UniProtKB/TrEMBL annotation, chains A, B:
Superkingdom of the source species: Bacteria
Record domain dTDP-4-dehydro-6-deoxy-alpha-D-glucopyranose 2,3-dehydratase: where: 42-246, 276-477
Name of the protein described by the UniProt record: NDP-hexose 2,3-dehydratase family protein
Organism the protein comes from: Streptomyces rochei (Streptomyces parvullus)
Record-linked Pfam families: Hexose_dehydrat (PF03559)
InterPro entries with a match to the protein in the record: EvaA-like, EvaA-like_sf
Lineage of the organism: Bacteria, Bacillati, Actinomycetota, Actinomycetes, Kitasatosporales
Length: 496, 496
């Protein structure tokens, strides 16, 4: 048989895989370096207290019709920025074309631009560090939290706002010059955004590249970041999202895998379901979904009422669209007004995890959310605001709520209060939990599957798979890799 | 250090990988079985000639305003079906928010439903066979071509058209009961569709499952299909799309890799760029793209004129939207009318391929197309209708056109005329070529990269990566694996 392309050269080694193994081993080492190297724990605490003291903002609620730079678009009432950029608040109608469920309407944020959530990494003393930023966001109930090195919309870094330039953004715009550890477009809240995504990227610069940590920035090891993640409201949503994308997987048996969690992240063995089966399950749900979504004017969203003050659900459930006036000390633009989404109550976001065949798996829920581009992504076992569903029928994402909230303390591996993005959401706080499941693992149904941690890592190389809440929990799972345990209170946020 | 999840069980073997290797080896064997087992070559020829003779349709062009079951929506002129399902023809406006390029408007097909392109596989005589369907589509210039087992829109298989049920669709709706070889949502023509995708799925049924091949169906080996792919206009677009998704990769060194093409498909070694680098390059282009797309009424599309007959470009370039009346013998519904997109000229779709470090790579173009969900996907080296660009400036996808069309015959590995989907496009034919590049491979720039064949296979496990034209070419590349060479004429289609 003719050989169209003659096979002459010898097989090459698999450098892609060797490089992945080295990276995974170095991440594992950084996760174990809980004391830090470039920035000692004491130094960090002093610096962080200083940022909390100096980077202050006065955030006042104002009526939507008093926003400046924003206007209600004639004919629709949609809230749009005068520049036509940033984002808009409009209406969405969701219906089931198969007629199986009644459909609904709601306000959403439309932000078609793709921003950058970028983390610069560099070795100090042979250990990988990450450049974290102390950043005040208007929706944060506690002001400053730790964000990635860069957290910027396209309008931000392309200077639509005419403010200062975004520091360090060049490392991501010219990522090809450096060692890229992770780089994918990932979705954000599919219940509040329509089609929103950000580029989640981690770039390691060589030791020869000078990167000065500005006043709002410090170099931390993964071990330090993981300890802070266990505290309430320190590591912000965008940081969690990009941390989740770090390629822990593929380190092989040589990795310093001192814990079962870390081993399940780095060794690609022993999944209950082959990855192809998970992909097929998801493709089937996406193709089978009858959910159809269309835009409706904000003034005509059924079930919601608009006043001069805000847009709110008629029964007081879900969230409100409010306005805020911000006067900040530490931002590019020092005074502005903007709309924010304010949920009416605290949510619960949780993974049940179990060792199956010696490998740690998380129970994921294939969840349909109207604002997601692919409609269905892998979500946490539980992701809900319980008070939104006072009566049956409960949606699938409440199915394991009791198992999570009533688990005995020794099975609760992680329990912290963490905030959603403070640039779009006002005092949006969820209780994040990781709970060990000791029962029979045969509790899967049409929308639940046990997925091994290394499979989640593999899926996170790509977009469209794990929703933002699941990514937050993956970062929390990684934080258990060093053997630490959650220290947050997990209590309710004080009423405002 | 405390071990939160005690690591007790021994590491398991990697069954996921072993299974992938077995599958890849069986696909390679089927590709080498060019004579067939279940259906001999003579038997196939007789059957196919019979289908061409018996499955005839009369397709007449009619004016758009004479379509029945379709109407021009008041206020927009958009062409919509009376049921609100199937698809619509509307306008799209594309602009560059950075102001770097002028933008344009055009008609597009909007078809938000996800259909099924499904192939049933089964072993006969120890060799994998695939159930191919002889199907007449109204836009095919030659009537019958070979399609996958199932090629159905959601409206088709959920019976909106009140016709006969879709045979074999249950194998894909209940894919989890069988061995799923491939399953992903893949895009279609980003220049003609907005947001269109289909579930591309291959399901292998066990030998114990009875699957009767209906009158329009025959079991063929990959080797047989590959030979037919080298002929003009036999294997239709949907079949090529789903064939491209077959998991050739990962067979390892034990596979029967008699050719360099097959070896480069199955052995995951020696890529010029690590896969992470390719993913990062693509994420950067997607995030950096300033392309913004919005809907406009079909009656108001700038640069296009609408008559009672059709919608056409003012300069006679690109395509027309026409109407057809179909009277068919072999379809679920026997008479209907519908709009179709009719390109004004034949296109060229080509990969330059090269052995780099002994591994076959294809030169892919990261191409921005307004109708793609992620805006940028990996496209062929050349993908254009040359007559649309009579003068400079030529778009990037024309950059290697001369190298392709003027290559000496011994470097042309594949050269066939293949049709695009006959259910939406009228006489849409492209000349598909694979041309060996013998020059220096350092010809990459911002939008071109050499990608190894096994990397393309890896990306095809997921959606959003390879556009439909590139997938067609991947199927053509696979067809070289058995050592056959293209036999199509590659000549121009006769003028109608």
């Amino acid at each position: 048989m003719a050989d169209v392309f003659p096979a002459t050269a010898p097989p090459l080694g698999p450098p892609d895989r060797q490089s992945a193994m080295r990276t995974a081993a170095r991440l594992a080492e950084s996760a174990l370096a809980v004391e830090g190297v470039a920035t000692g724990d004491r130094e960090f605490r002093d610096w962080y207290a200083g940022r909390v003291r100096d980077d202050v903002a006065e955030v006042r609620r104002i009526a939507l019709d008093r926003l400046s730079g924003w206007r209600a678009e004639p004919g629709t009432g949609n809230l749009v920025h005068d520049s036509g950029r940033f984002f808009s608040v409009e209406g969405l109608a969701a219906e089931d074309v198969d007629g199986g469920s009644p459909g609904w309407e709601q306000p959403v944020i439309r932000q078609p631009e793709i921003g950058i959530l970028g983390l610069v990494a560099k070795e100090f003393g042979g250990v990988l560090h990450f450049l974290m930023q102390a950043k005040n966001e208007p929706g944060n109930h506690n002001g400053v939290q730790l964000s990635p090195t860069v957290q910027a919309t396209r309008s931000n870094y392309s200077r639509v706002h005419r403010g200062a330039s975004v520091p360090y953004v060049e490392f991501f715009q010219q990522a090809g010059r450096h060692h890229v550890l992770a780089d994918s477009l990932q979705s954000e809240q599919g219940s509040w955004f329509v089609g929103k995504r950000n580029r989640n990227i981690v770039v390691e610069v060589g030791r020869e590249v000078e990167v000065e940590a500005g006043e709002s920035f410090r170099w931390l090891t993964l071990g330090q970041i993981h300890r802070l993640l266990a505290e309430d409201d320190v590591i912000n949503m965008d940081a969690r999202s990009v941390l989740a994308c770090l390629p822990f997987g593929g380190a092989g048996e040589g990795a310093p895998a001192s814990t079962a969690v870390l081993r399940s992240c780095v060794e690609e063995t022993g999944a209950l379901h082959p990855t192809g089966e998970i992909l097929s399950w998801l493709a089937g749900l996406r193709a089978g979904s009858g959910l159809a979504v269309r835009r409706v004017p904000l003034d005509e969203v059924r079930g919601w009422k608009r006043t001069e003050e805000c847009v709110a659900h008629e029964d007081g459930r879900f969230f409100r669209v409010i306005g805020v006036d911000v006067r900040a000390a530490g931002r590019e633009v020092r005074q502005w007004t903007q709309p924010l989404i304010e949920p009416v109550a605290q949510g619960v976001v949780a993974f049940l995890v179990a060792e199956i065949g010696g490998v740690v798996h998380a129970l994921v829920n294939a969840r349909t959310q109207a604002g997601l581009i692919d409609k269905v992504e892998l979500a946490p076992t539980v992701q809900c605001v319980p008070s939104n569903y006072p009566r049956a029928p409960y949606p699938p994402q409440l199915r394991f709520l009791d198992e999570v909230l009533e688990a005995p303390a020794e099975r609760v591996r992680f329990d912290s209060r963490l905030s959603e993005e403070g640039g779009r959401f006002h005092h949006a706080v969820n209780r994040y939990l990781i709970v060990d499941w000791h029962g029979d693992h045969r509790i899967e149904d049409d929308t639940f599957r046990w997925v091994a941690l290394h499979q989640l890592a593999g899926l996170l190389r790509h977009g469209h798979y794990l929703n933002i809440e699941a990514r937050s929990l993956v970062a929390c799972l990684h934080s258990l890799a060093g053997g630490t345990r959650a220290t947050g209170t997990g209590e309710e946020v004080p009423a405002r």
